[in-house]
Amino acid sequence: MVEGQVYPVSDEWKKRAKVDAEGYEQLHGRSIADPGSFWLEQARRLDWIKRPEIAGDWSFDEDDFHIQWFADGKLNVSANCIDRHLKTRGDATAIIWEPDDPNEQAKSFTYRDLHREVCRFANVLKREGVTKGDRVTIYMPMIPEAAFALLACARIGAIHSVVFAGFSPEAIAGRITDCDSAFLITADEGRRAGRTVPLKANVDKAAAQARALKKVIVVRATGGDVAMTEGRDIWYDEAVRDVADDCPAEPMGAEDPLFILYTSGSTGKPKGVLHTSGGYLLWASFTHELAFDYRPGEIFWCAADIGWITGHSYIVYGPLANGATTLMYEGVPNWPDASRIWQVVDKHRVNTLYTAPTALRALMAEGDEPVKATSRASLRLLGTVGEPINPEAWRWYHHVVGEDRCPIIDTWWQTETGGHMIAPLPGAHALKPGCATKPMPGIDPQIVDADGNVLTGEAQGNLVIARSWPGQMRTVWNDQERFFQTYFATYPGKYFTSDGCRRDANGDYWITGRVDDVINVSGHRMGTAEIESALVLHESVAEAAVVGRPHDVKGQAIYAYVTLNSGVESSEELRDTLIKWVRSEIGPFAAPEAIQFAPALPKTRSGKIMRRILRKIAEGDTSSLGDTSTLADPAVVDHLIDNRIS
Ligand code: PRX
After folding, report:
1. Which residues form the Acetyl-coenzyme A synthetase N-terminal domain (predicted)?
2. For an engineered disulfide with 90, which of 86, 107, 440, 507 has Cβ 3.0 to 4.6 Å away?
3. How far apart are CA 327 and CA 349, in angstroms?
């Protein structure tokens, strides 16, 4: 990593930014010294039905473990994202929607339009029997109705659980069952890069396994032919014809659940991360305004999918809470050609673009021409999220895309954190390629060693957060014990992020990547244990071990070692079968890039798979395998090295 390269805050940004270096120090200082009054003051950015008088009430200690924010407050999240803007900016654009196919018409919705659409959607949900506290699974393409559906749930107090449209029927069924969701919203088909995705057909397969499911609401997106099950499935366009244009917003306690979002961990099945209403919305709104220096009238484009936390917080909740214009894009950055993302920037005069390093690396590989063919004059700020950005991609983003005039906000955060945790503020912090720089106000990061000793000054170790913040997840759905054990047991009294981190001499934080068995493939977070479980479900597989190895574009690629049942012969055909198997068990993005058949895996005498060795072999770094003396059978390693897939 090239170090020492620093991009100071430009004079222009010093002048125009809401928060400068001194302002940041003050904000952060106050947030830590007097969090109670700091957060009650910040709470004023929301519209409360009952204003809270208590800010944080939490303890990370096992015998008194609890996390609450603004617990005596009452509000409605959808009213905060829509109704309160009607008076002042009812005719301002809330959502711009850009379709997959550039020859189709874009759409835009004012806040007044959004109010009507969300109310009507909410009325359909109510009529179908959805009530406060019910779980509603949302399996949608990137169409405006996806945003309407989230906000409609929030309006009536239903808890949404969005399942990314790339997940397989198996994965949908598991998530429906885990949160006992009787309702599901989907579309006939999705579209991406000119292809269709059979969403309704996937839901039908999932429904066969998910007995909790009672009603399926289907939005007509492509007009494709789909099967409808009488009594269970209804067309949204038919249901919405005769509902009222208004729907009162349900008063909700600040700690009432807003949504569940499943995410992968190092063990077991995906966890249902639960976020609640007041603290989450406050955090989404606060971080959106600060990190992106957002001002009314600007066009904000978060090029993520609504199926992930980035889409929840920075396509829907944060921007709309702030009265922003948020752009929603149905397609992918490089279709029909490598200029598309920049064409969309020009077409809608986007001011802030927020995307993932993996997308930038893919675009960078196409050269500078597709970028230079566009103007990008509207851009003033760039952002990245989801994985560490390599300095080369950072510099390309800065120099070629932003023509050296747009700061890059490298935001480190997680599904669990609700919003940005460590990120530069454009008017306050000098930028360093690959560095997330400084904690947001309210965030108290620490670096600890393996024994939990807090390291000071320049240091490298594991990243923990020493105090709660409003956007923190509140529990794992239905499994408070797992919540505590996963995040608070490793370093007592602290939230463990599972990320490694380094702090440099200026006190800037550099995220070095996960320290657990979670891998990040094209910005998709996956537990290696999940892929292993899928592989061993296949009748030919006795055992599997999955590791990540570096990949130029995807960040990491999936490398699987598979031991077959006795009597089963390895073959290319079986390799293909297993790759297809994983696609259907989890989703296309979880398909291994390489499967190496292995007669045995390297294990310790107590039977533990030595993943460190498997990672090194997959990376092709076999000269430094480290200590193999604890292996039960060292000969296994030679066989693995000889048969490595490059
Ligand atoms: O390893 C970190 C990486 O993504 C993980 C969180 O993944 P997920 O919950 O899917 O949320 C992604 C969107 C927030 C983290 O534990 N990560 C995220 N942002 C960065 C990052 N790693 C380095 N730099 C980042 N800016």
Report:
1. 24-81
2. 86
3. 10
CB environment 432-442: b (16+ within 10 A), e (fewer): bbbbbbbbbbb
Which residue, among 108, 31, 8, 112, has the nearest Cα to 290 in the 3D structure?
Answer: 31
Contact 163, 138 (CB under 8 A): yes
- Give the predicted TM-score (pTM) of the model: 0.96
What's the token pair of residue 475?
């529990």
Q: What residue has token string 């909700």?
A: 252
- Atom 5 of ligand 1, residue of closest alpha carbon: 414
* Planar angle of CA 573, 200, 579, nearest 5 degrees: 15
Q: Which residues are annotated as a binding site for CoA?
A: 192-195, 310, 334, 522, 583
Long-range contacts, 623-629 (Cβ 8 Å, 24+):
628/602
Strand pairing of 215-219 and 233-235?
A: parallel
Please say if the pLDDT value at position 2 is more than 50.
Answer: no
DSSP string, 574-626: HHHHHHHHHHHHT-GGG--SEEEE-SS--BBTTS-B-HHHHHHHHHT-GGG--
Q: Can you say whether the dihedral through the CA atoms of 573, 579, 581, 584 is positive or negative?
A: negative
Q: Give the Cα separation of 542 and 565 in Å (integer).
A: 5
**Residue 195 structure tokens:** 């292809």
CA distances from 357 to 183, 244, 286, 292 (A): 35, 44, 24, 17
Q: Can you tell me which residue has the tokens 């125009």?
A: 16
C-alpha span between 393 and 373 (Å, rounded): 19
Q: In a 3-state reduction of DSSP, which class is residue 59?
A: strand
CA of residue 328 to ligand 1 center, whole Å: 21
DSSP 415: G
- Closest atom of ligand 1 to CA, residue 304: 13
- Helix (DSSP H) and strand (DSSP E) numbers for the chain: 22, 31
Q: Quick check: 611 and 563 in contact, CB under 8 A? A: no
Q: Which protein residues touch ligand 1 with a CB less than 6 Å away?
A: 263, 309-310, 385-388, 410-415, 436, 499, 511, 513-514, 520, 525
Report yes or no: 429 and 409 within 8 Å, Cβ to Cβ.
no
ipTM of the complex: 1.00
The rounded distance, in Å, linking the Cα atoms of 437 and 141 is: 34
- What's 221's DSSP letter? S
- Ligand 1 centroid vs 299 CA: distance in angstroms? 24
Find the length of the chain: 646
Q: Residues 596-618: what's their mean pLDDT?
A: 91
- E strand or H helix at 86: helix 83-89
Tell me the per-residue pLDDT of 76-106, one tens digit each, with 9 for 90 and over.
999 999 999 999 999 999 999 999 999 999 9
Reply yes or no on whether the pLDDT at 549 is more than 90. Answer: yes
Amino acid of residue 417: T
The answer to whether 380 and 406 are in contact (CB under 8 A) is yes
CA dihedral 108, 111, 115, 117 (to 10 degrees): 0
Going by C-alpha positions, the residue among 448, 483, 480 that lies closest to residue 466 is 448
